[in-house]
Amino acid sequence: MVDIKSMKERKKLRLEILEELYNLHFFSPTQNNCLIVKTNELYGERNSEKHLAYHYLLTSGLIHIEISGDSSAVSITSKGIDYVESIYEQK
To answer: Which of 15, 17, 71, 89: CA 20 to 30 A from 42?
Structure first.
């Protein structure tokens, strides 16, 4: 049986990540339109909810991740932008 509460929390986490990246893309005070962070801080533990959320967003084509050494740069794709905007157009 599917745990509906957990499913809603996962969906909320993914949307929060996309909203943060959307805002960085359009409203970043610097030229850096992506999230740059230590990779282990970005994902947390392997297969944690946060790690699974980023994996889902990446494999869905909603975000792009570039890894360089121990750092990752995460940005929203055009598909991700469209997704975020469609969520808010529905509200």
So the answer is: 89
Residue 57 near residue 43 (C-beta atoms within 8 A): no
Give how many domains the chain has, as a whole number: 1
- By the 8 A CB rule, do 66 and 72 touch? yes
Note the pTM of the prediction, 2 decimals. 0.91
Q: Identify the domain containing residue 73 by its residue range.
A: 4-90
pLDDT tens digits, one per residue of 62-87:
999 999 999 999 999 999 999 999 99
Q: Which two tokens stand for residue 53?
A: 């959320």
Q: Are 47 and 30 in contact (CB under 8 A)?
A: no
